[in-house]
Amino acid sequence: MRSHTARRTLRGVLGRQQCQFRRTYATEVQQPAATVSSEAEVGSARAYCLDLLRKYDTPSFLLQSYMPQKTRDAYLAIRAFNIEVARTADTTSTPTIGSMRLQFQRDAITKALAGTPPKQPIAILLAHAAEDLQRRTNGKSKFSKSWFHRIISTREQYLTNPPYPDLAAVESYAENTYSTLMYLTLQAMPMASLTADHVASHIGKATGITTILRGLPLLAFPGPANHHSNQGGMAGDVGATRQGSVMLPLDVMARHGVREEQVLREGAEAAGLRDAVFEVATRASDHLITAREMVKNLRAGQDAGHDFEHGHEEEHMDYAPSQSSTHAQEIQQAFPVYLSAVPTSLWLERLQKHDFDVFAPKLRVTDWRQPWKTWLAYNRSNF
Q: Closest by alpha carbon to 308, among 320, 321, 294, 322?
């Protein structure tokens, strides 16, 4: 069992830190392609994506106003894309149909980045953002198609609800979804910086791990109301195929004696559950602490303190060393993207306030402090 001292330790750590939509457009594979999207089509697509975030991803909706104007369309398209693919399991009856839907998403991304998007709002706005990015950089910058496809493939891997064998698998899931969303947003700025990506990797992992914890009640006790959450796309991470599941890492559950059937019977009172949640939350907290320490060190002219675990991947290796920007300048330029750490940190703070009871009803509502905390973080350049 976890000691009260351990709980107080995380409370102290968190104290220092201060975690679908109903389709209105058809998305069939047979949709015609548009070689050129009119201004009216782009405006309509922008409004659609913005409304999607407003309804189903409140944190991202609040954060979009802090993105540089030139990056905002890309941010809206990327986050709307995330909702679309994350909701696949929730909006399809079988994994086979879900895979077909995700294949359509792959095709739509490929066409959008080639400048011939299908008549679908997310694809239209993404194509517009991709064209604008190339125009702003004289063709030197573009979005990595492989990163979009990575997100889709990772979502597809979990359509049938396989368990996470260990915390490392949870981190891999978070890296391949939430961290990758941040890499794509950095590309839109445009930024091609290993340093910026390294910080984003840790924040994305923290967000992804936290999202899994937030979604645990929806998986264990699904119901009609659970499919309309606007908590950071959380409902999109739980699908109809995941009913009656406890998606905590198996090694953590074994370590604390957590039995899935007992959680499904007793909820928050299941033996060892709070201890298991505490351990997973600690890993998310560790990534936020690491990101903060990195930013502090880099601003002071020091190095990051450790190597970038994913720096060897092809997309990151394509970056040319910056000849004009210091690490501190790169961090400052990327800072709006790092603001996603704010809602993640606030949720973890509330979780420890409720003694790691992930079923606490107050964890299911939007944190009223987020607008103020985000504004404060932005103006102080400190998340």
A: 294
8-state DSSP, 119: S
DSSP three-state, residue 349: helix
- 201-255 tens-digit pLDDT: 999 999 999 999 999 998 888 765 444 345 544 444 544 444 578 999 999 999 9
83, two tokens: 């909702």
Q: How far apart are CA 205 and CA 260, in angstroms?
A: 25
Closest CA to 273 of 161, 356, 215, 351: 356
Helix axes 341-353, 273-299, angle to 10 degrees: 140
Residue among 149, 150, 111, 148 at smallest CA distance from 131: 111
Angle at 197 between CA 54 and CA 307, to 5 degrees: 145
Domain 20-380 has CATH 1.10.600.10: yes
Strand, coil or helix: 33: strand
> Using an 8 Å Cβ cutoff, are 106 and 375 in contact?
no
Q: What is the pTM of this model?
A: 0.86
